[in-house]
Specification:
Structural class: mainly alpha
Order of helices and strands: HHH
Radius of gyration: 15 Å
Shape: elongated
Largest sheet: none
Oligomer: single chain
Strand content: under 5%
Helix content: over 70%
Length: about 90
């Protein structure tokens, strides 16, 4: 991992793209939000907040392992959200 700055950008871009995909789905189907799409967006925002707070944690012993864990968690959360979008 190159830097904390790049990890924060990755979190922002990945979850932002997922939210954008939900908006595109809404526009191409009903044209308005539904309970399911709002739930996915809320989950993406909550995941963003949780991951950024983990990145900003100061009392970490092994920073390299900590950031690798965050990166793996980002990938897991993104895959789960994408599966939910595909199931709509």
């Amino acid at each position: 991992m190159a830097s904390v700055k790049n990890l924060k950008k990755d979190i922002n871009f990945v979850l932002g793209d997922i939210i954008e995909a939900v908006y595109i789905y809404e526009m191409t189907t009903t044209g308005k939000p539904s309970e399911n799409t709002n739930a996915i967006i809320d989950e993406a925002i909550a995941s963003f907040d949780a991951l950024i707070s983990k990145v900003n944690a100061k009392n970490v012993e092994n920073k390299k392992a900590h950031f690798k864990q965050i990166n793996a968690e980002l990938e897991q959360v993104a895959n789960q959200l994408i599966e939910k979008i595909n199931a709509l």
